[in-house]
Design a protein that fits this description.
Elements (H helix, E strand, L loop, with lengths): L19 E3 L2 E3 L6 E5 L7 H14 L3 E5 L6 H10 L4 E5 L3 H9 L4 E4 L7 H14 L3 E6 L5 H4 L6 H18 L5 E6 L3 H14 L6 E2 L7 H17 L5 E2 L7 H14 L8 E4 L10 H12 L7 E5 L14 E5 L3 E6 L2 E7 L3 H13 L2
Parallel strand pairs: 3-4, 3-10, 4-5, 5-6, 6-7, 7-8, 9-10, 11-12, 12-13
Antiparallel strand pairs: 1-2, 13-14, 14-15
Helix pairs in contact: 1-2, 3-4, 6-7, 7-8, 8-9
Length: about 375
């Protein structure tokens, strides 16, 4: 049985991957795991797309991807690349000329599935263009669009098919003299995703991996599936950049990604909320209070831990590691810092007083 463990940063497979640059964002080679998303706006509407990119950047997105479905989108794509605060990856399917056009219009990277581009002659034209411009290519293989020769093999499992597809494409790219590569091999199944990326990390350890569950579903289901798969991989040291795809506002993808990185102790952009689940000892509306604190913390840009505890049993004792927090009693509560009591205030004042203290101490 495979041993499960949390891999420290100096042992992580991600430290062994070759580093590539997507614009100004390093991917692989031990760089921090970067957060990506994809625009849901039409690429030919540059104004709307740039507005969405700014919202995503404000939420902590570091790399953004835009679909280039046809030649009519190229002018918009060029305008987006020129003004985007984030490096822009062109998402290409079927038409190799769109990949070449996107590279010429300012793409920081290309994402394509060589299996649906057509002949290798067309793929080679894209490789050559990317090589001349010094931009990476993400070879993105999906379970639903495998190379036909691999898909029809009955001697391979789905993860083996995904890895075989990646390996065959990588060999071709390397033979062409191109190694500025990021790999992804996505499926909607959590077990398939985990097994595939573990195999990829062993089979092609030199290449950075873009991890995520594709077609994961709406906000709740998609969050669970992505965190189950990507969380397991990241804890094993696998994965250099990620997009947690959700059928939702893409800002939600970014929020969930940062929550996951924070929960794993890898990166923290925003405050962490520590709150107890309530019980019969609780004498305040703790659920409402915790929800209000969570909402107000969205505007705080300090990587602190904030506790909301329902009674003296859980706080500050069990929340002693929190930077700051509140522990509630009957109609009142205590504000504590670093596990030490600061002052007691009425229930109605607790949240406001907590945030006054956060602002005073952390400038947020």
């Amino acid at each position: 049985m495979r041993e499960s463990c949390y891999v420290s940063a100096d042992e992580a497979p991600r430290t062994r991957t070759r580093q590539v640059m997507v614009g100004n964002v390093p991917v692989g080679g031990g760089a921090p795991v970067s957060v990506q998303s994809m625009c849901t706006t039409r690429t030919d509407d540059a104004k709307a797309t740039l507005a969405q990119i700014q919202r995503l950047a404000d939420a902590g997105c570091e790399i953004i991807r835009c679909a280039v479905p046809n030649a009519g989108a190229l002018d918009g794509f060029e305008a987006i690349c020129a003004e985007s605060p984030l490096p822009v990856v062109a998402d290409i399917h079927f038409d190799h000329k769109l990949a070449i056009g996107a590279a010429q219009r300012g793409a920081a990277a290309l994402r394509l599935n060589p299996g649906n581009i057509g002949s290798f002659e067309r793929v080679d034209a894209v490789i050559d263009e990317a090589g001349q411009r010094g931009i990476p290519i993400r070879i993105g293989v999906n379970a639903g669009s495998l190379d036909e020769a691999v898909a029809e093999r009955t001697d391979l499992t789905q993860p083996q098919k995904l890895v075989a597809s990646c390996a065959s494409f990588v060999r071709h790219f390397e033979e062409r003299g191109f190694s500025n590569i990021v790999l992804s091999a996505k499926a909607h199944s959590v077990p398939v995703t985990i097994e595939t990326y573990r195999m990829l990390s062993e089979e092609l350890p030199q290449y950075p991996l873009h991890v995520g569950v594709t077609e994961a579903g709406t906000l709740r289901q998609g969050t669970v599936k992505n965190c189950a798969a990507v969380g397991a991989l990241l804890a094993d040291g696998i994965g250099d950049t990620m997009r947690l795809s959700l059928t939702a506002d893409p800002v939600e993808e970014v929020d969930v990604a940062w929550e996951l990185l924070s929960a794993l102790g890898m990166r923290r952009l925003r405050p962490e909320l520590v709150s107890c689940p309530t019980c019969g000892r609780t004498r305040v509306n703790l659920i409402g209070m915790a929800e209000e604190v969570a909402q107000r913390l969205r505007d705080v840009r300090a990587p602190i831990s904030v506790a909301v505890m329902g009674c003296i049993v859980n706080g500050p004792g069990e929340a002693r590691d929190a930077d700051i927090g509140i522990a509630c009693g009957q109609g009142r509560g205590m504000i504590f810092v670093g596990g030490e009591p600061l002052r007691t205030v009425g229930e109605e004042e607790l949240v406001d007083e907590l945030f006054k203290e956060i602002a005073a101490r952390y400038g947020a």
